[in-house]
Design a protein that fits this description.
Helices cover 52% and strands 15% of the residues. It is α/β, with parallel strands linked by helices. The longest helix is centred in the middle third of the chain and has 38 residues.
Amino acid sequence: MAAFQDTRQHTEQKVMVHLLTEIEGNPSFTQRGLASELGIALGLMNHYLKSCVTKGWIRATQISPRRISYFLTPEGFKEKSHMVKDYLARSLTFFRDARSQCEVLFAECQQKGWQKIGLVGAGDLADIAQLVAQGNDLQVSLVSQNADLKAYDAILITDVTNPQGAYESIRNKVDPNRLLTLYLLHISRTPLGEGDAK
């Protein structure tokens, strides 16, 4: 749960940094266009904008009945610089932790003679795993949860948005010894419900 919360906060911070940067560079952007660019719902974009106005980071001016222009306030510039610094620090920490854990895990795979590793979950963590694997002579590729997972020597969960859900959806399809997880995702390997019964 902590990993999900961190990922959610990291994603929200990424959206806010992008939003404040866009307002700074293009005050007459469209909410719909920016929501589409960020891959979020229009209603969520509206929520972020209202939150920024309430916090005093941006000011809105009505240009016409259907057009609003947004401007960053001095507080908005200050907050944006803090967010960028924090976002970059968190990104670098995540990258270092992910790289280190992947290196250890892939070394163990090589010791066991496992060469073909499937990654379940696209995104930054999968990209990092693929970079690390290049230096380890492993065949690492993204796979769908519905693919034939037994065709791989091992499966590594790289889904950062819902790591526990990805694990639960494939845990019965893969030998538990060949289903790999990274500590940074905080995946519980105890089947749901089993830890409750005593």
